[in-house]
Sequence to fold (985 residues):
Amino acid sequence: MQEPELLQGTLDLLILKSLALDKMHGMAISRRISQITDGAFKVKAGSLFPALHRMEQAGWLSSEWDESETRRRSKFYKLTRTGRGRLQSESQRWERIALAMASALLST
Amino acid sequence: MLQALFQTLFRKKRVEQELDDELAAYLEQATAENLRQGMAPEAAFQKARCDLGGIEQVKENVRAIRVGVSLDILIQDVRYAIRSLRKNPSFAAITILTLALGIGANTTIFSVVNGVLLKPLPYPNPDRLITLWETHPTWGPFLSVAPANFYDWRAQTTSFEKMAALDPYPDFILTGTGEPRRLAGAAITADFFSLLGVKMALGRNFRPTEDHVVVLTHSTWERYFGARATMVGSEVRLNDASYTVVGVLPPNFSLVSKASDFQARTRFDIWTNLGLTSPPAAWQRGTHPLYVYGRLKLGVPVEQARAELDHIADNLRRLYPDDNKDKGIVAVPLEEHAVANVRTALFTLLAAVAMVLLIGCANIANLLLTRAAGRQKEMALRAALGASLGRLVQQLLTESAVLATLGSGLGLAFTLWSVPTLARHLPADLPRLSDISVDGRVLMFTTFITLATGILFGLVPLVQSRGVKLNARGVSSGQSPLRSVLIVGQVSLALVLLAGAGLMTKSLRALLQVSPGFETAHILTARFSLPPRYANGNKFGTAAHREISVFQRELADRVRNIPGVKSLGFASHPPLAGTNNNWSFFIEGRPPHPPGVYDSTDYRPVTAGYFEAIGIPVKRGRPFEARDDEDHPLVVIVNETMARQFWPTENPVGKRLRFGDQNWRTIIGIVGDVHHEGLGIAPAPEMYVPWGQVPNVEVRPIIVVRSFNDPAGLTNSLRKAVADVDPEVPMDQIATMDQLVSGSVGESRFRSIAISLFALLALFMASIGLYGVMSYMVSQRTREFGIRMAVGASRGAVLRQVVGQGARLALIGVAGGLMITALLGRLIASLLYGVKPLDATTLAGVSILLAAVALFASYIPARRAANADPMDSLHYE
Fold:
């Protein structure tokens, strides 16, 4: 399936959202995004890792090395305080946009 | 952000490794996932590979993002810093100017220190270059060397690859190129330049036995021979004889030496062959004209060479007790020797200018503290919005880095102007002036102090924000211990600088108050170089002087008729120039000395009229008169020190003594002492001899002309008079006596002016700092003062309280400064003349000055506090 074009900022928000509950490694984030979007978005490594590193440097995410469920040493990402704030403000922004878009499309 | 950038740029390897690990883990996990979904192992791995989409490409993207984000954040922070600085232009301007001044001044002084003390000497393997001196327990540690001794040293040493000697005396009159010119010559042994490692720009070195050959200094070649390409091999007329030019030195050649080397000559125009290829005559062990250089063999330490030289000196003492009794040999690396006298002075200046920068930094830190206090609400807001503490710290540091960079940029621009300007005005006796420039090392120094100052004042507000808790309104109390520490530190340093300036200035004044021993006003001096025909070819005996006496008489007749001239005389050396002759003598009727022991004295040939013209008082007996010439009884005049030293209980007038030529000479008078070696140096025993009766020939008379008014105006008439007598006699070193006196204290004056400038700057900055802190304190506590006045405190009480607080800080600072001065004082003792490093008047004076300025600086804000309207204060907020 063709990966749908992600709107600017969508990927960041999806990553923030998927990390809202717990720390995760890259593969798990990718799987999680797929789950929470009902398979609509499949994030490939080529987009995922640059995004993770960028967000880490921006101070939204922090990382640590730990053992994964398959006992493989992996790099785990989690939200920082800044990242949590970001998730909140970005979510609100998306809700507004989504509502606005919905009402725009529903009007005749 | 800085950390991420640092990681990206400098810890690449680790970052890469981590990225590899991360992607490998991903690949394994993706494969495992595919396996769980029921794919065959091979297919599961292939699909995971395919999903990853090329490991290298992913890594490349991640790398690009990492650098990009770091730079983005950096640019963002810099923008933010510039924006916030532009919102507060006066803060930015004050800070940048303070830094520019501080960094510019530091870089300038460092350029001098770098050129004079730190740069390696301009020769290959300079660490192996050594200067060699004779030494004697009473005559001094660094004596120039007898040719016969040099010959033996060179023959016997095994530690030195080469040993060469320089005789700085030969002078040449160049004719045939227009106006006759005096060229300062040096006679050198043939391997002198190869020892230094200097390659000729044109032609070659001497061969050891060549005679009548010369090497030209590059500037001589340009100035007198139009930089002719065919110079090598051509003949030049020097001292009425023909010499062949064999080589021209490169333009950047300079002979590194200290001011007192070479009888105070600073440059040589022309070089001839000293020879010394066969053992010199015996009398060449009793005359000491040579400056000796050695190049150590590779790997031979100077200690080993010294041990060997001690052994050689031992032999020479035994073999030649007459001349070498008690004589030793000292070896000093050229690098050390050249700067021995200026090291302390230059490091003192560097320390002084560094203190100015520190005071400036403290001011900026105080400004930043005030700013930080004002921005605490802004910061709190940003923190609440999710900015991490680290991020805020980065922003603050970026701001100080931007300030430091702008300041140092401006400072460096200042340096590019100030270094060449300063180099032109440095005292000429500073060694290695030509090596002073802004080079890579200077730029590194500037970068270093920029970073150091940026971090220094950038971190202070952070220290503050950690140490002090905010009160409810987000405003600090105004009584910050950190500010007080900064102020006390500033005042202390300012006091140290003021004390240094006070001491140096007092020392200079003491030096200038020393009477040189003659009347300095209204005197013009100039030097003549008489061609060899005046010497009559006779190196010894009084008859040699007839021609010279005729020249002097004819010139004197003409000069005496120049309007404005009061009197005149001739002498062999100008006063205060650090040049002299020394002669041993024997007093009639005294028991003979054992071999190798002599009485010796400086002596100066002068003509009748000299004492009157220069204003040296005759204390006893009579001055020289015209009749004291070649044909009349031999006479001498001694100075008071010599009279005191050699005839402590008798009147020397009428006594007789003789020099090496064995003729008895009668003492006819005693004259006052003159500080010939420099104002700060006590006069030595000295003897004056009439020019016509000097036992060896003197062909470089200086004239001393006393005028009724401005002596400089006489120069042209004097020049014309000389040309009338003999157009082939060059005249140079034209100066008024005031210029000579002033030049002789040049280094001391430069030091005093530089330190005083720094001290004034320090005083200004420290008082601004105190004013700023007290103003801030008053503005923070206006309400409190208002309330206190509302409940009955008088204005005077408030005024006293604020001034008292400022005064307390200032006094602690003064006390601290006095303590530092007491500790550092003895380090500069060697730079002072006639004043002790802990001179009570100076220290008290600068303490009072500093305290007064500090009081004034806190009085202005105090008055503002006292004038606050209590009602306003109560309405405040």
Notes: The mean pLDDT of chain A is 83.
